[in-house]
C-alpha cells in the first residue's frame, strides 16, 4: 500500500490561533478518508497546504512521485459560450466519446451536455467539474465541502461516483450521512493534532467519546491513589521509623500522572425559541402560483401545514424550493392565489437574503441583544453566541467585518433567541460543523413551534422532519411518506437511470483498445478472493474475541476500588485496544479488496 502524501511535524499558525502543532498523518492509495473538525480548526488550510497553495511554518509534506491530485475547484473554470462537452474535451484532452461516457455517469446529456455550461445551475456545474476530475485520472481526490448547495440527487450521484472510484480520496464535510456512505476511515483535526481512525465517522465519534470517558475514569482512580499516597507521606515522613517508606511512596507519587482528557471546544448546546404549543392549521395556500414576472415556477398549489409540524421542503435544485419559501414569508409576491397564516403567527426567517442585510453598525453582542425576546439575559446571549462560534473578543466584532459564514451564524443565533412560533429555514446547516448541526437538530426537535425548512443534509432531515413537501415539475404537493421513503424513491430513480445507461452502453460499439477480456486472470483472481475471504473470517473472529475482552476489562475497571489494580487494568485495556485497532485496520484493507 503506497503512501501518496506524508505530513511530518507540521506547524502552522493563523494569527494567535494554532492550526497545526507538530501534526503527522499519511494518506495511502485506495483509501477514502473523511476529514472532520470544528469550524476554524484549519481543515481548509491543510487542504491548501497539501495542494501547495500555502506553506508550513515548520515540518514537511512528502509527495509520492506518482501522485496525481484531483481537486474539486470552487471557482468557475468555464470559458464564455463553451458547452460542458467543449469544457470536458479542453480540460482533459480526451476524445468526445470518452467525455460523453464519463458525463453520462452524472446524468449530463442533451442540453445539459451540449448547451452553454455557464447557464447551468451550481449543482449541474459541479457535476461537470466532477466529470472533468474523473477524466484527468487522479489517484487522490480532494473535496472540500462537496455537498454544500448540492441537491439530493446530485449528492447520491456523487456518492455512487466515489464508491466506484477505486483510488484514494480526502473529503472535508460536515455531512455525516455523506461521509458514512463514502469514507472507510476518519481523520480529525483537533487542537493542532491529526488523528486517523480506521473506521467510519459514526464509529469514530463513538470511539472518541468512549476514550474520553475512559480517561476520566482512569484519572479519577489516579487522583484517588495520589491523595492516598500524599496522606501517607505527610503522616509518616517526620517519623524516623517510617521515613524510608514515605520516601518510597513519594517516588510512587511522582510516577503517577493523570492524562489530559481530550475535549475540543465546550459542548455545543442550542436552545430554540421558547413558545407555547398550539393546535390547528398554521398556514394555508389556495390556488397559489409562485415565480417571477416572466417565469412561473409552480402553480395551482393547495397546501396546509399544521401547528407543531416540521415540514421538510424537498426537490432538485432549480425546481423552486427557495422560491416557495421566499413567497411564504412575503419577500416575493405570489403570482396568483393567496397565502393565509393563522392568528398570532410570529414568523422567524433564516435565508441568504436575510443574513446579507444585517445592520453593519452593530456588534455581534448588540445584534443578539436587539433580536432576543424580553426575558433573555445577557448570559443567554453570550451562551448562544458561543454555541455559534462567537467567543471571547469575537462578540465585540462589528457586523461589517464579518464573513458571509459568520453573518449566517449570527442570523441563526439571533433567530433562536427570539420568540418566533414559526421558523422558516433555508439550508440552516450550511456554515455549521458536525457538532453544531447536531445541536441545532436537537433544539428543533424539542421546539414547540412549527418549522418549515430545506436542507441538503440527510442526517439532519431525517432527525428533524415530521412530514415532507415535494417541489417538482411545476407543482408543490405533500409527499405521502416519511423522509426515508422519499430518499428511497430518489435512489430507485437514479438506479433505474444507471441501469438504462449501462444497458445502452453495453449495446454500443466501443473502441477495440477499451475492450477488456478478463478471462486470462480469472483463476488467479478466484484463488486470491478465497484467500481474502478466509483471512476476513479469521479477523472477524479475532475482533469479536477482542471486543469481548475489552468489554470485560472495562466492566472490571468501572467497579475496581484498588488503585494499583485499576492502573493494571488500564494497561491491559490499552494493549487490547492496540491489538484491536491493528485487526480492524487489516479488516478494512481486505474489505476494500
Automatic annotation (TrEMBL):
It comes from the Bacteria. Keywords: ATP-binding, Nucleotide-binding, Repeat. The keyword ATP-binding applies. CDD domains: ABCF_EF-3. Residues 493-533 are annotated as: Disordered. Pfam families: ABC_tran (PF00005), ABC_tran_CTD (PF16326), ABC_tran_Xtn (PF12848). The keyword Ribonucleoprotein does not apply. Residues 514-529 have a biased composition (Polar residues). Residues 5-223, 283-499 form the ABC transporter domain. GO terms for molecular function: ATP binding; ATP hydrolysis activity; DNA binding. This is ABC-F family ATP-binding cassette domain-containing protein. It comes from Roseiconus nitratireducens. The lineage of its organism: Bacteria, Pseudomonadati, Planctomycetota, Planctomycetia, Pirellulales.
